[in-house]
Specification:
By secondary structure, this protein is mostly helical. 71% of the residues lie in helices and 5% in strands.
Length: 171
């Protein structure tokens, strides 16, 4: 299986995991007859073929699914560390390229928060007559920085996606 297929499989497992966790949460509390304890109620349901979601059973399924996801993610990590690709004339591991992409995403998020914070503070803080408030970078310059980061991120993501599609998982 290639990395792309493995990532899709992990996504499916994560969706299943969310459903199982929600099922466990929704069935944690039970309404049972006052004269029965929980074990007696479970036994009665079993005898009458009434399906109940047992906390320990569903927790076991959740843990099993988590372990499968961990195993697949570990295989991806091993493969990414050992897969060398060329990006912009430099040989780099897929793992490092992924980390660089994550850093760009983080930087884009921070720049967005600067803009939001500036807009919010602009409304709250008033400067007196002896000072003035200016941005260190114009809105246009900031927009150009964002565009360049997004362009670089997309280029790196495309390179990584191509590599993922053509790289078989290591055991």
């Amino acid at each position: 299986m290639n990395i792309t297929g493995c990532l899709k499989q992990i996504k499916q497992m994560q969706n299943e995991l969310r459903r199982k966790i929600r099922l466990r949460d929704e069935n944690f509390n039970m309404i049972i007859p006052k004269e029965l304890n929980i074990e007696e109620y479970k036994k009665k349901c079993s005898e009458e073929n009434i399906k109940i979601v047992d906390f320990y059973d569903i927790t076991g399924e959740i843990n099993e699914l988590l372990n499968k996801i961990i195993d697949l993610r570990e295989k991806i990590l091993k493969t990414n560390i050992n897969t060398i690709i060329e990006y912009n004339g430099t040989r780099v591991s897929s793992a490092k390229l992924k980390l660089q992409i994550d850093n760009i995403r983080s930087e884009l998020s921070h720049i967005e928060s600067i803009n939001e914070e500036y807009s919010y503070k602009k409304k709250l803080r008033k400067v007196d007559d002896e000072e003035k408030k200016i941005n260190q970078v114009s809105d246009l310059e900031l927009e150009n920085i964002v565009k360049e980061l997004e362009k670089k991120k997309i280029s790196m993501e495309n390179k990584l996606e191509t590599s993922n599609a053509n790289t078989e998982l290591l055991d």
